[in-house]
Amino acid sequence: MMKLKKRGAVYGIIAVMLGVAVYLNWSYVSTPEDLLVAGQVSSSGQKDKEEQDNGAAKETGGAADTEAVTAADYFAQSRLSREKARDEAISILKETMGDEETDEKGKTMASEQISKLAEDSVTEARIESLIKAKGYSEAVVFLGTDSVNVIIAPPQAGFTETDASKIKDIVVAETSLGADQITIVEAG
């Protein structure tokens, strides 16, 4: 009876830790506009300081350069946030596997979760690469259990239904999810 309670507690802790990791990952994705604005402030502040240090005057074309740098910063920041959340979840799962009180079933579940997170990471990177291969400048993919969120830098001509269709085709081909489970968001 005591062993059963310990096992239940371990499974409960694993579920809560995974829930926290998923929440952290989702919280980084749910506010792309806030992150983009924060990136713009940071990037323009750094650019202003560099220009003052160099004694250069601001150019009217500088705003477009800052915007391009900011978009790249946004995508890099999103990938970094995703990896941090995933690394934190893996760390928790490894601790669970190394805990002497965790039974074999719990260790097996933790191992399976680590494998799943690794597979998701590879799938996200592959989808991002395929999207870039289709001519889009930047994309970041967040793979969930039954959904995929794709944040994309829109083409200069604007984002069209054809673009959405191309991206959905890539995601459907690389995952077992349907087109209705894919959300595409334009950055910026």
Brief write-up:
Helices cover 70% and strands 8% of the residues. It has helices at residues 2-29, 32-54, 62-98, 104-133, 161-174, and strands at 139-143, 148-152, 182-186. A three-stranded mixed sheet has the order 1-2-3, sandwiched between helices.
User: Structural class, judged by helices and strands?
Assistant: mainly alpha
**Helical percent range?**
over 70%
Number of helices: 5
Would you list the SSEs in sequence order as H and E? HHHHEEHE
Assembly type: single chain
Widest sheet: strand order? Answer: 1-2-3
**Overall pLDDT score:** 75
Uncertain residue segments: 30-66
Number of strands: 3
- What percentage of amino acids are in beta strands? 5-15%
Distance between the termini: 56 Å
What integer value in Å does the Rg equal?
21 Å
Shape: elongated
Largest sheet data: 3 strands, mixed
Q: Can you give a write-up of this model?
A:
This protein has a 3-stranded mixed β-sheet, with helices on both faces. The longest helix is centred in the middle third of the chain and has 37 residues, at 62-98. It starts with a helix and ends with a strand. It is built from 5 helices and 3 strands. By secondary structure, the protein is mostly helical. It has helices at residues 2-29, 32-54, 62-98, 104-133, 161-174; strands at 139-143, 148-152, 182-186.
Layout of helices and strands:
Layout: H1 2-29, H2 32-54, H3 62-98, H4 104-133, E1 139-143, E2 148-152, H5 161-174, E3 182-186
Parallel strand pairs: 2-3
Antiparallel strand pairs: 1-2
